[in-house]
Amino acid sequence: MIAIVTGASRGIGKACALKLAEDGYDIAVNYRSNDEEAQKTADEIIAMGRRALCCKADVCDREQVVRMVDEVCGELGIPDLLVNNAGVVDDRYLLMLTEESLDRSLDINIKGYFLCAQSVALKMMRNKKGVIINMSSVSSLLALEGQSVYSATKGAVNSMTATLAKELARYGIRVNAIAPGFIETEMLEHIPEAKKDEYLKNIPQKRFGKPEEVANLVCALASDRLSYITGQTIVLDGGLSL
Ligand code: NAP
Fold first, then answer.
1. CA contacts within 13 A on the Cβ side of 17
2. Which of 68, 135, 184 to mutate to test the pocket of ligand 1 (most atoms within 8 A of CB)?
3. Among 29, 69, 102, 226, which one has the highest count of C-beta atoms within 10 angstroms of its own C-beta?
4. What is the mean pLDDT of the chain?
5. Residue 143 — φ and ψ, nearest 5°?
6. What is the span of the domain harbouring residue 218?
7. How far apart are CA 3 and CA 80, in angstroms?
8. Quick check: 190 pLDDT over 90?
């Protein structure tokens, strides 16, 4: 089995890559800039006895995405799984929003998901099977101040997930999304401690999630055991959204 995980040099993407390797997948480790961290992820996968390919590609750039997917097919084989995970958060109140920040969020969090889904689905169709998992966020369901753009991009991910699930079901491809709450990665580091304490109060489980907990859900959704689930956004947030 072969999986492409975007944004796998660290955080949730890295945890997904490692858990999937444990489950027997060979992994294409996509990333944008950090060669060293991506290589570390790949080395850990190889140490587990699986194949790993470091794929430096900006998911917002069609040429780079097409080249990456062709390289993966040539080196590893046609992907069984795409985890659209690479994303950015850039919290700003409306009046602080710059066009540059807006464009970057829309590009990475929406356009990147479409470009990767399109290129990979084209290959999966040949096999008449495949799974696409889109990393959304609980922010798509909540109104968190400063996250209007981030929430909008993740809301778009939920909508694209449902529609692509309908379009691709006839090719044996399932598409689902995961909406994590606060997960302990570098993405949380920009949040001031006082704000984090405030968020914690609203989480019934009174803790942030771990990247590995998201990765466990990715593995479950990728598996044939959940073969009748498609088009869904599954929330994993310690109860935050209740
Ligand atoms: P992270 O620690 O900031 O890691 C982001 C990853 O994305 C890195 O591997 C980075 O690669 C890669 N990346 C960024 N832009 C890219 C691009 N244009 N092309 C290719 N790769 C790119 O993020 P994370 O916290 O693990 O979050 C992963 C996903 O989960 C995101 O979609 C995020 O919105 C979602 N999420 C996170 C949380 C949370 O609390 N952490 C909660 C809900 C949802 P390089 O470093 O090599 O550039």
1. 36
2. 135
3. 29
4. 97
5. -105, 90
6. 2-181+213-235
7. 6
8. no
Is there a contact between 61 and 104 (Cβ–Cβ < 8 Å)?
no
d(CA 76, CA 45): 14
List active site positions: 150
Name the residue among 149, 153, 151, 154 with its Cα closest to residue 97: 149
pLDDT tier, 191 (very low <50, low <70, confident <90, very high otherwise)? confident
| CATH code for position 30 | 3.40.50.720
- Residue 151 Cβ contacting ligand 1 at under 6 Å: no
In whole angstroms, give the CA distance from residue 170 to residue 14. Answer: 31
The model carries a pTM of: 0.98
Q: Is residue 53 part of a domain?
A: yes
Tens of pLDDT, residues 57-69: 999 999 999 999 9
In this prediction, residue 170 carries a pLDDT of 98
As for how many domains the chain has, the answer is: 1
Tell me if 197 is assigned to some domain.
Answer: no
Please, are residues 145 and 242 in contact by the beta-carbon 8 Å criterion?
no
Stretch 147-152: mean pLDDT: 97
